[in-house]
């Protein structure tokens, strides 16, 4: 855990250096869900809850072909959608949310996906994290949505002691300017998936190890 004597300014500077090093190591970092349209992005992110992006990407090509528009999902029943997404886990609740969300999109937004986070969170089954990811990638107000990887790294890096994702997001958002939030989101996820694993982080090959309280010091 980061020592309490680190000032807010020192923490922000360290956070900037963390992003710089991660960006230099992984300049190609981006969302790993495949999509072509705003609707496909929204559906893919909804399906990714408690499911890997790899699995979602295996499921969505056929799903997107069968249900290309919000009207197609809205006209369906959850039972009709379930077989297409069964391998994603929690498929029954996800199918219900997809239908309900699509009906809201058709009834309230002309079948289009809103770009504002606060509007997205009003859709059935769309939480703050999903809304943040979608809004950011659609060019809405920047957000630093927190998933399990980001939450884990925020604690290990001494950037937050919170357990609530919303509070973690607030802590992290204070460390970088808004224009870096999307990149921070992507880089931290990539680092969590490729190096800073939950059970056995590979600190020996970590490019930010000397900026991490687990090994280095805040002033490094």
Structural features, described:
The model has no long low-confidence stretch (mean pLDDT 94). This protein has 11 helices and no strands. The protein is an all-alpha fold. The chain has helices spanning 8-25, 38-47, 53-66, 70-75, 78-85, 91-109, 117-120, 128-137, 148-156, 165-173, 181-194. Helices cover 55% and strands 0% of the residues. It folds into 2 domains: 8-30 and 144-211, Helix-hairpin-Helix base-excision DNA repair enzymes (C-terminal) (Endonuclease Iii, domain 2, Orthogonal Bundle); 38-137, Hypothetical protein, domain 2 (Endonuclease III, domain 1).
Q: Architecture of the largest domain in CATH? A: Orthogonal Bundle
Largest sheet: none
Q: First CA to last CA: what distance? A: 16 Å
- CATH domain fold name of the largest domain: Endonuclease III, domain 1
Strand tally is 0
Unreliable parts: none
Radius of gyration (Å): 19 Å
**Helical region count?**
11
């Amino acid at each position: 855990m980061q020592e309490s004597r680190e000032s807010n300014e020192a923490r922000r500077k360290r956070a900037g250096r963390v992003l710089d090093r991660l960006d230099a190591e992984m300049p190609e970092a981006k969302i790993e869900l495949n999509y072509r349209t705003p609707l496909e992005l929204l559906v893919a992110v909804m399906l990714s809850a408690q499911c890997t992006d790899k699995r979602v990407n295996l499921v969505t090509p056929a799903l997107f072909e069968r249900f290309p528009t919000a009207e197609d999902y809205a006209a369906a029943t959850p039972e009709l959608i379930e077989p297409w997404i069964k391998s994603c886990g929690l498929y029954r609740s996800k199918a219900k949310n997809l239908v309900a969300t699509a009906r809201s999109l058709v009834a309230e937004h002309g079948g289009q996906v809103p770009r504002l986070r606060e509007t997205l969170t009003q859709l059935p089954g769309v939480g703050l994290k999903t809304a943040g990811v979608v809004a950011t990638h659609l060019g809405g107000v920047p957000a630093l949505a927190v998933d399990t990887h980001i939450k884990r790294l925020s604690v290990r890096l001494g950037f937050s002691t919170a357990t609530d994702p919303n509070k973690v997001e607030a802590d992290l958002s204070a460390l970088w300017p808004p224009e870096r939030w999307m990149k921070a989101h992507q880089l931290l996820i990539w680092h969590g998936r490729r190096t800073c694993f939950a059970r056995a982080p590979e600190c020996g090959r970590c490019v930010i190890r000397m900026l991490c309280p687990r090994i280095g010091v805040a002033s490094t």
